[in-house]
Amino acid sequence: MEADRDIASRARDLKELDQDCAELLEVYRPRLTRYRAGEYIGISTLVERMRLVHDYRLFPFHDPDLPPELLPAGWHGRRPTRSSSTRPDPAMAPSSCLSSS
């Protein structure tokens, strides 16, 4: 298993990708309360959604989708896809790095 982890870490800069996702979580996670409370209405909903889509859109192309045992400890990359089930308004945001867990 250690050899597999070594290959995975050499094929992709997993630490950098994990840091990028952690930074996105840091920006958007605090906004979840506002999303859920319906504070974004009208044009502010569209603006917020466009910001989120813009900031998130490249992550799926970089996610190596490796099994958990090959990922670094504390990997933030699995959290993005769990957020889609926690948002209150399906029009508000795509599946993203907005985990509530």
Describe it for me?
The chain has one domain (2-85). Helices cover 51% and strands 0% of the residues. The chain contains six helices and no strands. The chain has helices spanning 2-11, 14-28, 32-36, 43-56, 59-62, 79-82. The two termini are 28 Å apart. Residues 81-101 have low confidence and may be disordered.
| Gyration radius from CA atoms, angstroms | 15 Å
Distance between the termini: 28 Å
Specify the helix fraction band. 40-55%
Structural class: mainly alpha
Give the topology string: H per helix, E per strand: HHHHHH
- The counted number of beta strands is 0
What is the averaged pLDDT score?
75
Write down the domain tally: 1
Low-confidence stretches: 81-101
Question: What count of helical segments does DSSP give?
Answer: 6
Major sheet size, sense and barrel closure? none
The best one-word shape is elongated
How much of the sequence lies in strands comes to under 5%
Topology diagram in text:
Elements: H1 2-11, H2 14-28, H3 32-36, H4 43-56, H5 59-62, H6 79-82
Task: Give a quick summary of the entry.
The protein is mostly helical. Helices cover 51% and strands 0% of the residues.
Descriptive labels:
101 residues; mainly alpha; 0% strand; single chain; 6 helices; 51% helix
